[in-house]
Amino acid sequence: MQITLKLYASLTGMLPAGSDKHAARINIPANATVHTIVDQFNVPRPMAHLVLLNGIYLHPEERDQHNKLKDGDTLAIWPPVAGG
Q1: What is the C-alpha separation between 16 and 22, in angstroms, rounded?
Q2: Where does residue 50 rank: exposed (0-12), middle (13-18), buried (19+ CB within 10 A)?
Q3: CA distance 49 to 30
Q4: Facing residues of 3 across strands?
Q5: How would you write the pLDDT of the chain (84 residues) with one tens digit per residue?
Q6: Threshold 0.90, pTM exceeds
Q7: 3-state SS record for 10-53
Q8: Residue 77, helix vs strand vs coil
């Protein structure tokens, strides 16, 4: 199945070559978890701070659950940010 993976800020460089700015359409196995994808793209898990699936926040304990991802979903990931 295919999903759109969006990586932001310092994570953008971890997308595959040919990605459109901060997003890429990727093929994933039907039993993939969010952490499967994070690991596949070499994103250190602590750097996957804010994770949204179709615009809805996924708590860290939900990121290892199977059957969360469906064909056509959008997975967006941001690193921790600081500022003031």
Answers
A1: 10
A2: middle
A3: 24
A4: 26
A5: 999 999 999 999 999 988 988 999 999 999 999 999 999 999 999 999 999 999 999 999 999 998 889 999 999 999 998 766
A6: yes
A7: HHHHHCCCCCECCEEEEECCCCCCHHHHHHHCCCCHHHCCEEEE
A8: strand
